[in-house]
Amino acid sequence: MKLLEDRIKKDGQVIGTDVLKVDNFLNHQVDPDLMADLGKEFYRRFSNEPITKILTVESSGIAPAIATAMEFHKPLVFARKHKSLTLKDHLYTATVYSFTKKTSNEIAISRKFLSADDNVLIIDDFLANGQAVEGLMEIIAQAGATLSGVGIVIEKTFQKGRKLLDDKHVRVESLARISAFEDGHVIFAPED
Ligand code: G4P
């Protein structure tokens, strides 16, 4: 998606050899107009699927996921990483290991928000090692729901997440695909 690639070139900051900082428009300060465009693009790509729920993990997946949910006019459910006063029982849970942060998080969704009748579209900000998506897929399986596809804002093709999902025959649509960072510059791979 050219608009997104241009924004990454303009505002993304390469950190070391494998991390892109996008806190100016995606995961700290959020550009609402860009989110609306991302939501429309995910809708265009997945509108042939009978989606009933959009699913993501807090926190950085929520902005693109709500924009997508607004296009589909279907609910967004986000997995929580922390138990809250009101989220205690009747949960689907999965453990997600973050290679970036070297920590494990339990993610949880209330059973009342996902059922065997649901066709789910997962939306997330980054696809790196694929652990977050794998955790959400585990929860979808627990609910007996159907996974219709995965929409990713920024995929890093040099990490193992995409292969993991391709091997499971999951439909993945990434709006920007990064194949490498070279001398502080982003090298884009062809779009899906
Ligand atoms: P995964 O997202 O494919 O599971 O891979 P990984 O375990 O490596 O990612 C762990 C966390 O780091 C995720 O956020 C993911 O979105 C984020 N991340 C991965 N690569 C990059 C990158 O290049 N730039 C930035 N800015 N973030 C990256 P999280 O732990 O779920 O945190 P949150 O921000 O959603 O709360």
From TrEMBL:
This protein's name: Xanthine phosphoribosyltransferase
Subunit structure: Homodimer.
Signal peptide limits: none
Binding-site positions, xanthine: L20, N27, K156
Alphabetical list of HAMAP family matching this protein: XPRTase
Family the UniProt entry places it in: Belongs to the purine/pyrimidine phosphoribosyltransferase family. Xpt subfamily.
Recorded catalytic activity of this chain's protein: XMP + diphosphate = xanthine + 5-phospho-alpha-D-ribose 1-diphosphate
Residues that coordinate or bind 5-phospho-alpha-D-ribose 1-diphosphate: A128, N129, G130, Q131, A132
Superkingdom classification of source: Bacteria
PANTHER family found in the cross-reference section: HYPOXANTHINE/GUANINE PHOSPHORIBOSYLTRANSFERASE, XANTHINE PHOSPHORIBOSYLTRANSFERASE
Enzyme Commission numbers on file: 2.4.2.22
Domain Phosphoribosyltransferase as annotated: residue spans: 33-168
Keywords: Cytoplasm, Glycosyltransferase, Purine salvage, Transferase
Gene Ontology biological process: purine ribonucleoside salvage; xanthine metabolic process; XMP salvage
